[in-house]
Each structure stands twice: as C-alpha cells, then as structure tokens.
Amino acid sequence: MIELYHASMSTCAQKVRMTLAEKQLDWDSKLLDLRASDQHQPDYLKLNPNGVVPTLVDDGQVVIESTVICEYLDDAYPDPALKPEAPLARATMRQWTKRLDEVLHFYTGVLSGSIAFRYQHLARPANELKAYIANIPDPKRRARQREQIERGMDAPQFADAVGVFDSFLTDLEEQLAQTRWMAGESFSLAEIGYTPYLIRLDELQLWAWMDKRPHISNLYERIKSRPSFAAAYLDWRNDAFCALMAEKGSEAWPKIQEILRQ
Ligand SMILES: N[C@@H](CCC(=O)N[C@@H](CS)C(=O)NCC(=O)O)C(=O)O
To answer: Which of 6, 19, 38, 52 for a ligand 1 pocket mutation test, highest count of atoms within 8 Å of Cβ?
Structure first.
C-alpha cells in the first residue's frame, strides 16, 4: 500500500501526485495543514526529519525528497517509464531536476512567499507567528521565511529570485526550441518536476513573463491536457490560496518588470 503525506498546494507534493497519476497507482492520502504546523509535529518528524512534505510510505518503507520519491516510483513501478532510455537524455532530465532541487525550489518559496503568502502569516497573532518560524528545522529556510514575511518584495532575496527565474525561463525556452520535451522527445520526470513551478507562475498571474517564450506556453498547454494534471493540481487546489496569489501577484508584476529592466 502506498501512503502519501502531502499538502494541497505544495509544489513538491504536486510532483509526486502527478507521478502517481501518470502510473495510475492507487494511494492513501495523509493530508497535512502546513499553516497549522502539522509538518513540525514529533510523529511526522520521525518520518521526515526535515519537517517538510511530501513523504511517501510504500509498504511501510519511508522515502523522502520529492525528486527521489518520483525516481523511486519510476524504478519500483516502471510502467509507463518516466525516465528516457538514452543515457544522454536521462542525464539531461537529471540536470533539470537537480537545478530544481538546488536552486529553483528555494527561490519559488521566496517568490510566492514574498508576493502572497506573507499576508497569511502577518494575519496571525505575533506569538503564534514567532513559534511557527522558530519551529522550522532548516536554518536557511527559517531565515528566508522570516525575511520574506517581514520585508516581502523589498527583501534582497526577492530580486535574486526574479533573476533566477528569468535565467531559468531563458534556458528552458532555448531547450524547447531544440527538443519537443525538456529532456528530448518524450515526456519525463523533468516535466513532472517543473509543472508545479509553471503552475505557480500562472497562479501568481505572472504569465506575461512568457510573452516572448512561446515554446514554454506551448509546453504548459500540453502538460495541462494530460489527465495527471487534474490529479496533481486541480483536484487539490485551495481556492483561498489561489485568490490571494492572483490578487497579490497582479500587483507584483510591475515590480518584477522593474527588477528585470535593471
Ligand atoms: N527538498 C524537499 C523540499 C520540500 C519542501 O520544501 N516542501 C514544502 C512544501 S513545497 C514544505 O513542506 N514546507 C513546509 C514549511 O514551509 O514549513 C523535497 O523536494 O521534498
């Protein structure tokens, strides 16, 4: 039996739900409320000491880290294969997912936190917010959260996030001008990895970023037409979160354009 500890709007959880759907695997949902600090509770930390979602439990065996979970699922349940056969294409897929884990995921937190989610935190009683931040196990993540909640788009890391995203979008557009999918001619864990991040730009009303990037828009349309898109995202969407991102994201676009012009 497969159990997934996840959260409705978590980008990392969306990747894993999409992989499960592509493979048509049944799974049991263990839904966490990240704003209620479910991820910091002692029982959950025994499964995932990093205090983050997702966590997969397959027949009692625990797997953490969303990219590792997706690869695990592809190895354990190989049909349909979500890794390219050719070694070079497989390496390309892993270069994309490595970049996601090492860079883009962190800055996505900066982008959506500084633009939108900080308002959820600022609405909390001060002592509750202090405890929430203090409970974040990873010091880098803790510092990022504090800064983005307090300073929003004025935090220096916000401009860094805009730069990181812009370079990523430039590189992705270039790749897609050469190959139909990110790692060659087949849909793979690379698209699954990045789908939640394209969704996030869409949710934040930042799709104008794609104005001169038609290949990325075309990729996103192809991804949205797959049944796994609903299982990953639409079926779990939190309307209040989406409304907040849409409102604050529209207000943020001029600031992002200003940073891009610098
Ligand atoms: N490298 C981890 C990152 C997981 C992660 O950042 N999860 C976020 C949601 S996308 C989370 O659980 N955040 C909890 C928090 O912010 O306290 C993975 O890929 O699984």
So the answer is: 52
